[in-house]
Write the structure tokens for this entry.
Amino acid sequence: MPKDSNTSINYRNEPFFEAPLHRFESDPRPAPTLSLGNIAKRYNLRSMSPRAMVELSNDLFSSGHLTKDQYELLSFQPELMPNFDVTIGALTGEQADPDRPRDYTEIWRQRLAFESKYAENAERIIIRTQKILDLLETIEKQPKIPRALTKIGISVDRPIKLPIKLPPLGFKAK
């Protein structure tokens, strides 16, 4: 906008920085550096705080399992904002509690239901939310190795050798 000589408005140019990992939905995904199984072992989606969700979304994005748009949706946790109590919290009547565990698969199911009902014309938003929910459900279904077993050196990839010899089981009717 041209500046009139009679106005006292000072225009200010803000710096703009482009993220080095700039990716969109249409960009090809790099080969994942961490498998979903390795990521799933570190997180419990049924009992996760917003802080842990930010860490999970960082892991998923850096390993190539999320696009930039999906990462932005999944990593944004409003309770981590310093002014939550006077903005969103004032409207909802809730106080920020960023360390309280939540069931994130259920939160994203509710979000998908809401968007399907009220944003039915925004198919792109619904598809993106569905992809995030599918990924969270896939992580949730990954087998988790109890830490107690990994500490004592038991591998779940191979059968455990028992100290006693058992005869093979037979299924013959007598």
